Amino acid sequence: MAPGNFTWVTEFILTGVSDRADLQIPLFLVFLVIYGLTVAGNLGIITLTSVDSQLQTPMYFFLRHLAIINLGDSTVIAPKMLINCLVKKKTTSYYECATQLGGFLVFIVAEVSMLAVMAYDRYVAICNPLLYMVVVSRRVCLLLISLTYLYSFSTAIVTSSSVFSMSYCSSNVINHFYCDTVPLLALSCSDTYFPETVIFISAATNLACSMIIVLVSYFNIVLSILRIRSSEGRKKAFSTCASHMMAVTVFYGTLLFMYLQSRTSHSLDTDKMASVFYTLVIPMLNPMIYSLRNKDVKAALKRFLTNSCCSSNSM
């Protein structure tokens, strides 16, 4: 086909979670509440783990960065999604779409890596408690965080570059509520073998490595807990990793549900529901999981509120 017969895409149209006009306002209100709780919860975790002296341990250092990642992941998606619920023409420019995809990949890859880092942290804390502060020192924490962000940025740049190196012509309607790899490549008029290969290798490597670290860490954690003779000791050891186990289960459960479906039952509508869960719902749930089941965080919140009240009364 001659180049003159193509209409090159300069903007995309997002279909949203639903194309039904009567659902746009209810969806806007639901997602506004979810995003509000996400911002409040994650900012609360970031603030508490930054200012409270009793939360200055490696576990809460990693939790702070998980909250930053969750807040970033949700913020890349939610504002544009909320705006699109209120407007008729749900357009996004070519470069805005590329930026959103890149930002999403940075935070989702960082979250996968961070959950593995946190599993390793719990493994050292429970299996080698006497060496914990030596093995997971301040320098090691900074190194692990730096590698997590460096790897997520490099993965996002390579993946998003490969997706947007394709030619997009004629059709510009993305069957999703944000710019994601699969619905974008479905619109390409180029051979998508290379970006699909990059995406598959990247996703498989990220998930496999992270899950192996998590599974091996928790296998050893369970063995160590079972070797503890007193029931009180087992309960205390289990309570230190229960919140992380719950967060890992919810996150990986969603991803496995999304990627292990058979081709006959797989659909983009199913992808949308799963994407809503891991881009909006999980970032909202994580602060609740880590605060409601964590005595240290609840105690830190009480101290913070008490100090705030005392400061306001003294003024």
Task: Describe the protein's topology.
Elements lengths: L10 E4 L9 H28 L6 H29 L4 E3 H34 L4 H4 L2 H27 L8 E2 L6 H5 L7 H35 L3 H29 L8 H25 L2 H20 L1
Molecular structure report:
This protein has 315 residues and is an all-alpha fold. The chain has 10 helices and 3 strands, in the order E-H-H-E-H-H-H-E-H-H-H-H-H. The protein is globular. It starts with 10 loop residues before the first strand and ends with a helix. The chain has helices spanning 24-51, 58-86, 94-127, 132-135, 138-164, 181-185, 193-227, 231-259, 268-292, 295-314, and strands spanning 11-14, 91-93, 173-174. Strands 2-1-3 form a 3-stranded mixed beta sheet. The mean pLDDT is 88.
Main β sheet profile: 3 strands, mixed
What is the helix content? over 70%
Radius of gyration: 22 Å
- Class of secondary structure makeup: mainly alpha
Low-confidence stretches: none
Strand coverage percent: under 5%
Summary keywords:
mainly alpha; globular; three-stranded mixed beta sheet; 10 helices
In a nutshell, what does this entry contain?
With 315 residues, the chain is mainly α. The chain has helices at residues 24-51, 58-86, 94-127, 132-135, 138-164, 181-185, 193-227, 231-259, 268-292, 295-314; strands at 11-14, 91-93, 173-174.
